[in-house]
Amino acid sequence: MDGHPRTADGLLRRALRRHPRELGAATVLLSLHQACEALVPVAIGVTIDRAVATGSVPALLACLAATALLFVVLSQAYRYGARHVVTGWWTETHRLRVEVAARVLDPHGLRGAPPAGELLSTATDDAERAGRVVEAASLVVAGTTALVVSAFGLLAVSVPLGVGVLLGAPLLVGLLQLLGPWLTRRTATQQADVARAAGLAADLVRGTRVLRGIRAEDAAADRYRRASRAALASTLRSAGAIGAYRGATVLGSGLFGVAVAGVAGALALDGAMTVGQLVTVVGLAQFLAEPVGLLGFAGQKVAEARASAARLVAVLTAEPLHPVGAAPRPGPGALAVPAAGFHVEPGEVLGVVAPDPADAESLVALLGLRRPVTPGELLLDGADAAALDPAAVRARVLVEPHAVVLFEGTLRTALDPAGAADDTALTRALAAAGAADLPDLDLPVADRGRSLSGGQRQRVGLARALLRAPDVLVLHDPTTAVDAVTEADVADGLRGLRAGRTTVLVTSSPALLGRCDRVVVLRGGSVEAVGTHAELTGHAGYAAAVLR
User: pTM for the whole thing?
Assistant: First the structure.
């Protein structure tokens, strides 16, 4: 989509540009903290040479006061620097999550959208890792500052030592960064495999009842087992890469510190430095492991952020499923799929019977614009739906899928999330959907409607669709979880509440089909027969699908 970076590095650069205040404050304060940390060995060496060695009490008190002030500054700098880091990091994470959510909810759709579980992983884990580039950037500057201050501290004691640190530290860090691309590839593979397993798990949990119904639990479990093992294997490989990277960082910084301390020891034996200077050099040699470790940690986080940013960019810049079009003109609500010989007259209640469930799914997906629409494939009041704005089309044509999703809250909010309808309208919709037996509108509803029975959940979903009162309402198997008596009540309620509006019932229920003005039999994507329910009972395909 326009406005979003089209590369992973571009997205990370934008993340840094979006938080100048937090990034600037964090960088300055953490750099001050690291500079003060590097000055601690210097302060101790000065104290030994100017106070301990001379026995001067005033000098000792002054040195202790200066050292105490140094610790106050470094502790407060870290405190507020870390606060700015976390603020920038999580603010960017939030903004990325909002952008992913907006892209997923875009009425024009998402071409090639991954499963819902993968999208969730992208919007949560990947957004968090990408947002952490704010922390990594500030740590790079802070670590570099510590190395520079340490080098100048060593220069004050010994020019060869200072020059050695100024030349050796960048070389060590550069060698560590050579592992960055390898780490990014391992991390990207691991994130993709984990997201795929998470997406599959979410799909399987959502479809547990269906899997049990078709006795496919073992096949589903085997499929998830393979995905989970692949995720585990890639996670172990990624962990091995991170361990190798961290090990190389610790080993490199340790050897570097030992080399500096060894040279300092040799100079001390030759009488080229005082005891205080030796303490300073040894302290700085030990401290060097910290900034080198910070730079190594930052490199690891950048590698992870780059892998996550690539996944975010794939979602944010995905092509729309439907192009931007014109708003449909007001009309009576006629629908037509010319190639299939399918049409619905304004105000008609049309039943659709598809002996092959795939034909029903295909029709519902087309009417709900869940897939790309080719020119001339779908007409709304004579206008080509491919040239119309999908949001405007959906405002007039509401497709209620078979799988009902209800959000946590009360029955009232489940029916009317916007709170625009009064209690009379809510009660009328519930009655038409055969759900008048539900206790009251303030009945608590758990996430996904788990506190309701299957039949109650289905009827609440139907009532929600009826409450919208769209020009065209398409219902896919709206009564499969209710008993015959309730189904007959729903059929009567639909006819009454939808009088004068176009309604399409994709179903095999005799009770619903018997209330339809016309019924069409759909086979192989085309209309095979047309008539009333009574007229079609002699049709072999219709009888096999309906009169069972």
Answer: 0.70
